[in-house]
Amino acid sequence: MSILRKLFRATPIPTTDGAFSPSPLAIKLGTSTTTDYDGGAYAKPYVGPKNRVLMICTEERNMTMANGKKFSTGNHPVEMGLPMLHLMNAGFEIDIVTPTGAPVAIEEWAMPADDADVKRLYRDYADAFANPGSLADFVAHKMNDEAPYAAVYIPGGHGAMLGLPGNEDVGKVLHWAHERDLFTLALCHGPAALLSAKTEKGFLYEGYKMTVFPDSVDKQTPMIGYLPGPMPWWVCEKLTALGVQITNTKADASCHIDRRLITGASPKAANAFGRLASETLLK
């Protein structure tokens, strides 16, 4: 097979654990070896007691699609990394947790190989991603009025749809943050985790406006081999059914603030989202 044919092949790539990562064509069209990270300089970084951000990551890697094939996913390295860089440069410390404390699942195939800032971040945080805190432990022992947190952050990647939307601890943290006027940050598919905030009393974010990765794009990506089949469910569809208004129609750089919820639409929004979140927290 010629180099050109390999580069434009639209067949998903099998992984060693029986799943599929995106095709060479999808990698070429849907990822980049660099990012638009703007350096994250802040004139007056935060100095105060509420100096931490709780980042809730997925520990699950393989998503079973509607056709039974599995997609190798996790948290998107750019969607997780660029906001982390901004928040840290703005004076905040990141506490990384997964539901049980198992390692963070990361979409390594989306790592921007030529971006020095992102590569350095993942080197520096390699141990934290491999040995995160337990969200269950946080809820049981650390979720109180004295906790030094300014925000809860749910990074994107299709992995945010795995193990977080129905997790009771995620729902408890979101309600806790809401009741204490903390900010909640969610990017791309990250808003899927907000579904955990539905109780018999209703949905915490009913009536909110959000930017979310569009269902219409998820429906198109199997054609280029990004996904190995149709999605098992649709994030925007579920949020809309609960009274959310999605403000974007494209997987673009748009972001939105509604009350103390900050959302962004896609990997293209990662830098703008990180800056918006940081500047908003600094205010």
Account of the 3D structure:
- By secondary structure, the protein is an alpha/beta fold.
- The strands form five sheets. It has a seven-stranded mixed β-sheet, sandwiched between helices. A two-stranded antiparallel ribbon has the order 1-2.
- Strand 8, helix 7 and strand 9 form a beta-alpha-beta unit.
- The longest helix has 13 residues.
- It is globular.
- The mean pLDDT is 96.
Question: Helices and strands in order, then pairings?
Answer:
Elements: H1 3-7, E1 13-14, E2 20-21, H2 24-30, E3 52-56, E4 62-64, E5 70-72, H3 77-89, E6 93-98, H4 116-124, H5 126-130, E7 133-134, H6 135-141, E8 149-154, H7 168-179, E9 183-187, E10 198-199, E11 202-203, E12 209-210, H8 215-220, H9 235-241, E13 245-246, E14 255-258, E15 261-264, H10 270-282
Parallel strand pairs: 3-6, 3-8, 6-7, 8-9, 9-15, 12-13
Antiparallel strand pairs: 1-2, 4-5, 10-11, 14-15
Mean pLDDT: 96
Uncertain regions spanning at least 5 consecutive residues: none
What's the number of extended β-strand segments? 15
Major beta sheet, specifics? Answer: 7 strands, mixed
**Multimeric status of the protein:** single chain
What distance separates the N and C termini? 55 Å
Order of helices and strands: HEEHEEEHEHHEHEHEEEEHHEEEH
**How do the strands of the widest beta sheet line up side by side?**
7-6-3-8-9-15-14
Task: Give a quick summary of the entry.
The chain is 30% helix and 18% strand.
Q: What brief labels describe this structure?
A:
two-stranded antiparallel ribbon; globular; 283 residues; 10 helices; alpha/beta
